[in-house]
Amino acid sequence: MVSEKIPAYDRLFHRSSGWIGADADYSVSLGKNRVLWLFGDTFLGKVRDGRRVPVAMINNSIGIQHRLDPETARVHFFCGSSSNGEPRSLIVPKNAQRWFWPADGVMERNRLSVFLSEIERTSAPSAFGFRQIGTTLCRVANPLDLPTVWKFSLRKIPFTKFSPGENRIFGAAILKADGFVYLYGLRERPCHDKSMILARVSKGHLEDFHRWRFYTGKEWSRLSLHAADLCPDVANEYSVSWLPALHRYVLICTPNGLSRNIIARTAPNPWGPWSKATIVYRCPEATWGDGIFCYAAKAHPMLSTAPNELIVTYAANATNPETLLNDDRLYWPRFVRVKF
Prior knowledge:
Structural class: mainly beta
Largest sheet: 6 strands, antiparallel
Oligomer: single chain
Order of helices and strands: EHEEEEEEEEEEEEEEEEEEEEEEEEEHE
Radius of gyration: 19 Å
CATH topology: Tachylectin-2, Chain A
CATH superfamily: Glycosyl hydrolase domain, family 43
CATH class: Mainly Beta
């Protein structure tokens, strides 16, 4: 297995004005060599002498990539705007004290579905002073139009659970295979690793929650509480992709959410059984200084140029917000080619 940086893709997303950095970095193929990018917290402003100034931050934004070759590709970025013309998140919840971070998305029959994590602030005085309180399914009727004129509806996903003993979330990764949409998630419990759980629904019926089935480790159940732990060390953001050269599915993630390492596991079926984890890349940014951390590793199979490779992104962040403002090397999609 060989991993290498992709400077051309790094340059494509490293901007000096307007959209100047974000995390999450989920992607959805729109067909015809176009890719939809879903971003979380996003900086808007200018970069001068390696610093971001002046800066506004919104909680989600969109990118549309035209052409797949990073040397010739172009990306256009979109956000929302308030009534007075100030930039704001493209998708906002009704409660103004909360916000949406995007998870994975999928195109079906020219309609886009995106999972959204609903977040609220906590009293913790740190970069991690937030918590997820729900998951919403966003259905976009006209995803091939400009994001600024999208027509979308929002529905709460009933299978999300948050309690002192267990959090259960779906939408961390999405895979289309064998007539189904597979909806990967995670289970979090105190003093345990984050573990993979899995649901599926027939293609074209994602919005019909009565059709969702949950993998128990042996069969598919109607009850989400029966979803089995399929493998450990996943994150709130990851990917599962089919790799033609291996004839296997490949899980890519940052183990347990925060790590210098990016790991891969493989399986013959979308539900497993999953192999042991293999480290495929070590993020150098994690060694740049105190408080710098890496996360959100995932693959983007529509960008691959060979049947034995995956293009992987990750994010590098800092616990001190001033570090992000003063070091523009951080907080961009970082691209790595992993050859199996």
